[in-house]
Structures are given as structure tokens and as C-alpha cells.
Amino acid sequence: MANRLFDRLPTLPALAQPDVMIAMPMHPNRVKERGFNHALELAKQAHHHWQVTLEMEGCTRIVDTPAQAGMDMKTRTRSLRSAFATNAQWHGKHVMVVDDVMTTGASMHAVAKVLKRAGATRVTALVLARTLKS
User: In the chain, where are the structural domains located?
Assistant: First the structure.
């Protein structure tokens, strides 16, 4: 899947070049359940392809939220309040957050808020797939 992404986006335009990238954080219980963090695997491929620094512990999911599937935007947003945290200093950084699928954007928005509160000047989403409303 990552190779298909990089076929379509072989290089990043200079303006889109992030200082650092992180994978969409998963709660440790969910990683244990699945056996891996799918977003981290995609981020590792992006790091390898573009040579952008991959921060493995830059942001964490501190609340084990229920699965988002089937929730509407309002419910997703409510369940993600205070779900993410960072101890890193992101002052002046452009951070790229890598995930496999974005449905409503609630998780991405919640992570971006945490990163911006920690000083990130720009947060960019890189997702393999985006679901449509219809």
C-alpha cells in the first residue's frame, strides 16, 4: 500500500516538506490487540522513502477510546477529548501525522490540537485513504 502512495507522490514539494513525522498514536491496549500499529508501519515506509525524521514517541494516546467505526462526527469528537498527549517540544516545527484511513478527521484534528498547543506551527495529514460521506 505504501508503494502505491509513493508512486503517486514520489517526492514532497518543498513547501510540503515536514521537519518531522509521527504515526497516528494507538493506545498500547489496541496495539497489543492488533499486534502492530498500522499507521506506524506506513510512517516507517514514508520515513524510508522521503528521509524525513520519524519521531516514534512524539505523541501518545493516553485514553483507550472505543473503536470509532459507526460513530458520527459529534460522538467521535467527544470520545477523543483528552485522548492524546505529548511531552515533546514542537516549537516552530512542521509535523506530518501519518495514518492509514481518515473518516471524519476527528482523530487527526485531536492530534493536531495537541501538537499545536505544544508549539507546532503546521500539522499536515498524510493518509493512504479518505472515506467519503456518501
Answer: 2-8+19-130
